[in-house]
Write a sequence for this structure.
């Protein structure tokens, strides 16, 4: 298969982790005889520095021409303490999602057996957790009208949803539930918010089309508690933009590190793959950023194009790296010198040599090829 992929490394640790994902995709292309080409674009703080806009036109048109998009991370600390900044890195990502109509952000939360001890939660609670969050990504409070009064003393953000925006992601979530454990939970705040009541109404009306799916409803405050109290009760969670942002980050505690969570952002025409973590600027260029979320995002890209065997091999390589503790410091309990690129190298080598008979640990620690 020929795929032209737009790569947007972004800010902070974005470039380092994306480099590993690209490395892995190149290894897959080589092993399976695909032709993957990569074209790089600016976004976020990196784009502001060079072009005074967080999403240059050039980047947007490059993404529209590509078959798919791989995104790194966004955000720079200097903007966090400047509430008056007119241009912010995050605007680049938000505009891109909107322009490409990426309305469904799909975030799988899977507890790896090898990592259960890394979670502060009890093993017995989290073992076998397997949840998928469908987060609405192109509407809601993120995109509603924003105001700041002239005297700067009051501000507002509107949370608006149209029926069609709820229906289109709900169809995807119902279908996902059908192919999993047939359970769909809508997370909302329908006891307070009108927009949440519209979500409930629409979902109730749609439910008869999916009779084999059990639909239930949970308020966001309760859901935030249930998610860490008993994550196994969930199968597919559907929720609006901001609740999904918060809940998925909370869910990373089940998995052990936010550096493990990948996502797919899908729309009618375009598809982007992005780790759920941020730019983690403090870690930039230190070689400590976990590349697995990025590499798993690349695996989701392969899935999206029906390259299931390829995606499975990437996941097998990741499982192996976790199993052997070839991981960055956020996960590593055994070795302290495994860098972002060494994890990428290991996964790349495994893809070339999945028989795993020739893995050489001395070389891993020297940062050289793991295959002898
Ligand atoms: C995410 C991030 C973004 C979001 C930020 C960087 C705008 O937190 O993808 O989860 O809030 O959607
Ligand atoms: Mg987030």
């Amino acid at each position: 298969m020929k795929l032209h992929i737009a790569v947007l490394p972004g800010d902070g640790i974005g470039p380092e982790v994306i480099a590993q994902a690209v490395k892995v995709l190149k290894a897959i292309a080589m092993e399976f005889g695909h032709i993957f080409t990569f074209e790089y674009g600016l976004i976020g703080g990196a784009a502001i520095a060079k072009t005074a806009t967080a999403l240059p036109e050039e980047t947007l048109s490059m993404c529209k021409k590509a078959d798919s998009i791989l995104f790194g991370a966004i955000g720079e600390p200097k903007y966090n303490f400047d509430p008056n900044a007119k241009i912010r890195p995050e605007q680049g990502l938000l505009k891109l999602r909107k322009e490409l109509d990426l309305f469904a952000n799909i975030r799988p939360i899977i507890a790896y057996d090898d990592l259960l001890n890394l979670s502060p939660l009890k093993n017995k609670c989290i073992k076998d957790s397997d949840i998928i969050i469908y987060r609405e990504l192109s509407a809601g409070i993120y995109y509603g009208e924003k105001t700041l009064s002239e005297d700067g003393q009051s501000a507002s953000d509107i949370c608006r949803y149209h029926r069609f925006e709820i229906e289109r992601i709900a169809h995807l979530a119902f279908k996902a539930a059908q192919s999993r454990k047939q359970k769909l939970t809508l997370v909302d705040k329908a006891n307070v918010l009108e927009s949440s009541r519209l979500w409930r109404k629409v979902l109730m009306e749609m439910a008869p089309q999916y009779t084999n799916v059990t639909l239930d409803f949970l308020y966001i405050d309760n859901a935030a508690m249930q998610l860490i109290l008993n994550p196994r009760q969930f199968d597919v969670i559907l929720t609006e933009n901001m609740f999904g942002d918060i809940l998925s980050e909370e869910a990373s505690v089940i998995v052990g590190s936010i550096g493990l969570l990948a996502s797919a952002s899908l729309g009618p025409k375009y598809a982007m793959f992005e780790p759920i973590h941020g730019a983690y600027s403090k870690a930039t260029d230190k070689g400590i950023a976990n590349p697995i979320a990025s590499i798993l995002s690349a695996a989701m890209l392969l899935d999206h194009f029906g390259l299931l065997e390829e995606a499975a091999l990437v996941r097998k390589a990741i499982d192996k790296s976790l199993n052997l503790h070839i991981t960055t410091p956020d996960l590593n309990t055994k070795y302290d010198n495994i860098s972002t690129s060494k994890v990428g190298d290991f996964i790349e080598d495994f893809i070339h040599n999945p028989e795993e008979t020739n893995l050489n640990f001395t070389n891993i620690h020297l940062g050289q090829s793991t295959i002898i």
